[in-house]
Amino acid sequence: MHSFTTARAGDDRIGALALSTGCPVETIRYYEKIGLLPQPLRTTGGHRVYGDGHKRRLAFVLRGRELGFSLEEIRELVALAEDGTGACQAAEAIARRHIGSIEARIADLSRMLEVLERLARACRRGRRPHCPILETLSDATKSGECPEGRRAPNRRAPEPR
Amino acid sequence: MHSFTTARAGDDRIGALALSTGCPVETIRYYEKIGLLPQPLRTTGGHRVYGDGHKRRLAFVLRGRELGFSLEEIRELVALAEDGTGACQAAEAIARRHIGSIEARIADLSRMLEVLERLARACRRGRRPHCPILETLSDATKSGECPEGRRAPNRRAPEPR
DNA sequence: TTAGAACCTGCAGTGACTACAGATTCAAGA
DNA sequence: TCTTGAATCTGTAGTCACTGCAGGTTCTAA
Fold it and tell me: Is the CB of B40 inside 8 Å of chain A's CB atoms?
């Protein structure tokens, strides 16, 4: 009937899996390539066939990404989920570390926002001889500076996008 | 005395410029390569020599980065700063757009933070049969889900780092 | 049988750097 | 003048998490 090497009810091709999870096909293949998803079965022609185990694993990864974990962190979390002993403490440690970095990023972004909104308001009030935004960028002694003065050199980019 | 093609008081080598701005040497060269900084003069041996104009331009770029602008946005802002006519309105538009994207990123991060903190607290309260973090990742119908249910597929990564 | 959708592999590009190799130049001391 | 070692040079590759494309193969429905 069909040419699956091992076909079961509920098996999906990559396109169907992409559709049901909202994860692009290319990304699924990428996750497999870097070892975050196990290799699925194949049809005789070489097309991937996913069973329930694969689907659960992909969902795990995607939920991790929604919470902002890096793929390396997710890799650790996957290992913990499959291990068991002491997993909860280790998972909590990963989460706390991640929470710290999110808080730091929010703090960074909030500082930027504050300065930018002040500058944009100054633009709007207008009738200044020069643009407050461009002046601030051209010369930090002008209105845009942070209250605490010159900040430490930024080794990591503030907004890597 | 020295071998500058055109030497002036206040001229700096790349190392001194890096030191005074806090911007790594490699990054300065990178900005030059992508055309964000103009090509500096050179010594007869080929070492870069920076004058005040270059220093001001680098400072402009770095302040833009501190405010989270992308290098492309900074490129536009540089052009506006050198142009003049209507520059303020254009600069404000760029800033407002940037403000919008920062607000969106803060909102994303705040949502993540909320879920993560709830999960980490649940871990700490402990004595559960299973780890709340790992359970949430394994099965979204558990405690970690957002109130509005399954979110739209995330085409852009939530935290690209 | 055939058309076309879906899938395959492999590679290149993104942004904003960062790191390295291997060569050259510079400045200061002997 | 010579030497030493720091600073600089160019060019390339790696980072993260994908995304897009070229060129080929397989699958499925009519």
Answer: no
The single-letter DSSP state of residue A50 is: B
Measured over the CA atoms of residue A26, residue A60, residue A98 and residue A116, the dihedral's sign is positive
* Minimal CA separation from A142 to chain B, in Å: 12
Looking at per-residue pLDDT, the higher value among B147 and A99 belongs to A99
Higher pLDDT, A11 or A137: A137
How far is the C-alpha of B15 from the C-alpha of B42, rounded, in Å?
14
Model confidence over B12-53: pLDDT tens digits? 999 999 999 999 999 999 999 999 999 999 999 999 999 999
Mean pLDDT for all residues in chain A: 84
Provide the 10 A C-beta neighbour count for residue A33. Answer: 10
Gap from B44 CA to chain A (nearest CA, Å)? 31
Question: Cα separations (Å) of B17 from A139, B8, B113?
Answer: 17, 15, 39
Structure tokens at B30: 């990178």
Q: Per-residue pLDDT tens for A134-145? A: 989 998 676 544
Task: Using the structure, give the distance in angstroms from the CA atom of A3 to the C1' atom of D30, rounded to a whole number.
Answer: 20
Q: Which residues of B touch A123 (CB under 8 A)?
A: 88-89, 91-92, 95
Distance, CA of B103 to CA of B106 (rounded, Å): 5
pTM here is 0.85
Burial annotation A109-132 (CB, 10 A radius, 16+ → b, else e): bebbbebbeebbebbeeeeeeebb
Of A86, A104, A54, nearest to A76 by C-alpha is A86
> And the tokens for B50?
């920076």
Facing residue for B60 by CB, picked from A62, A137, A161: A137
The pair of three-digit structure tokens given for residue B119, joined into one six-digit string: 């999960």
CA distance B39 to B143: 57
Query: Residue A17's CB: how many other CB atoms inside 10 A?
Result: 20
- Alpha carbons A133 and B87: distance in angstroms, whole number: 10
Question: pLDDT, tens digit, for every residue of B50-74?
Answer: 999 999 999 999 999 999 999 999 9
